[in-house]
Write a structure and sequence with these properties.
Elements: H1 2-74, E1 82-88, E2 94-98, H2 104-110, E3 134-137, H3 155-161, E4 165-166, H4 172-175, H5 183-196, H6 213-219, E5 223-224
Parallel strand pairs: 1-3, 4-5
Antiparallel strand pairs: 1-2
Amino acid sequence: MNKRWMKKKVWLIILAVAVLVLLWLLYQHQTKIRNETQLEKSEQLLSGSADSKSQNAEQTKQTKQTKQTKQTKQEPQRIEELIIDVKGAVRKPGIYHVQPTDRVVDAIEQAGGFSRQADRDKINLAQKLVDAMVIYVPKHGETEQNVLAESSVNAAGSQESGEMVHVNTADEQAMQNLPGVGPAKAKAIIQYRDEHGPFKSIDELTNVSGIGDKSLEKMKPNISLQ
């Protein structure tokens, strides 16, 4: 009886030890799986953080480039100065440098303003300026009608005055100061300029509808590209 009990006791002990070993191995296996899972999650988090930083850096770079592009587009293009001659009843007659966007009133201000003898009613203060333009301010009582070198609209008057028309900046009215150029041709020149950019040479004007070689020869003495 005692021997049987001893055998059962030994087998129970062996079984208990086996169960404990099995449970320990199972615990170790689960621990290993849990650690690997946590490590994988940590790597994913680190990788995601790195990707996020990379994306943020790329977005910041693109934003800066976009801002620089906008700033570049918004920066006004540098425009060459015009040189004009202000004469007559002004305080400081002479040669002046002005901007293409300036008007006659701006030129007269640079010349010190009107003198006391100036007949202001004969001056178009709102008229645009062109290169090599002569502004003549008459005195009261003068009968001369050539107040501005650009004032003549007909071709003959334009040639006699020797005025120059800046075809890259002139408006439709100023463009008509060219010999043989009326409203239709002036509009065609400006339309061509808007579509193809500033004229690079005088001969390029023959590409404008209605202007041939003969017409261009008459216009050349009065054309300025500067």
